[in-house]
């Protein structure tokens, strides 16, 4: 099945990205810990990434991909190439102007982004300095998102999915190689972010050239199709970026909770992003161009089947992942981060935040899977309104839970807001008859809950066994470097085996499902390179 092959491609590269990302974060935790410099760098890194969701990934995924796919399907390769060039040029000009203006205004913008930093001497100024270094990354990565969307629409997912790996490798090289030559490790990382943007851009341009559809800078022209793209981007960019707005609100509030709270939430979110990225992003990335092509061709039934299988696959992986993260949050934070400047207290605080984030994991992924059902039908308004309502719920829950639970309340509020978002999208799709869960989906979800409960019980039993073994041999502790990593790996593998056996016995998955991945290596036909059409 083409959808599952595409999900496997994106998910595989995303898994590599997350693994290298963990290695990157382990290095960052070792060099920076969770103090002043770490807080400043994470804000400097989040600032351009916030706007990337607006101008880059969110807008491309929801507006650019369906429009490019429809143009390619209905009007041919030349019209699609011309549209790609014009859209690329307009985006580049708009982003260059925006980046320049915001870099000038950075000292004032930082008061809004991290108001609590002014309470600590030198923290605000350092955050401004690091953010000015990282901000050009926004220009490069947003253009990368447009090229990635183009490649995804052509059925070429590997190059775009592998791009984040380059960011992780460059940042690891920067923190180990540049730190002795700059003021702080935060400065080394900030320069690494800027360099990574250039590396990623060059990588994707080469991939697009090989696909015969490399975008080129032409005279920016607001053609009717480009105007339509902008019209769709405005609501879509806001809607797709509302999750990032919720993280911005988290950052603002965390900056006022305690020194280190921003870092605890960052590390916890990074762990939570592993299943979210591997599963949710992979499915959403692969599903949108497929639905766009199926609906453009009038194949409504095929689109319904694709969405059912996408939801089935998403829950198969996210529900047990949620339970695993909640139960194993403490060992995970200890094994991954507790070393160097990152203390045991930091690990405990990070684990508590991880449990809060993990509660919403199925909902985060559900939003990624259901949103293409609207975007592929060129309905960009509904997901925006739903996301805005969920953001309002998130803010109210933040204000209610933060005084009671500190930074953990911030994480839990984000998770509950995502639940509101996902459930509302599902209800609206059902009401419009754009999605109807089939018998197979309903049957397998019920069985999945039973298998997940069995896996959770096994995890609790394994942790009790580890605690007993530690009393006999103190070295069998999660904080003991390689021993702790081996213990955690053994427990995770044991839980996976238990879940897999239960899934087979309960027929959550069946032997016929394995055929979905046959033909994984088949590639779509290459688009022939043709002379550039003038704007």
Concise summary:
The protein is mainly alpha-helical and 535 residues long. It has helices at residues 2-32, 36-75, 77-104, 106-113, 123-134, 137-153, 158-177, 185-210, 224-240, 242-254, 261-296, 300-337, 344-358, 361-375, 381-405, 407-431, 439-472, 481-505. The protein is built from 18 helices and no strands.
**What is the total tally of β strands?**
0
Give the biggest sheet: none
Residue share in helices?
Answer: over 70%
Order of helices and strands: HHHHHHHHHHHHHHHHHH
How large a portion of the residues is in β-strands, by DSSP E? under 5%
Oligomer: single chain
Rough outline? globular
Question: Which spans have pLDDT < 50 for at least 5 consecutive residues?
Answer: 515-535
End-to-end Cα distance, whole Å, is 38 Å
> SS-based structural class?
mainly alpha
What is the overall number of helices?
A: 18
Average of per-residue pLDDT values: 81
Radius of gyration: 23 Å
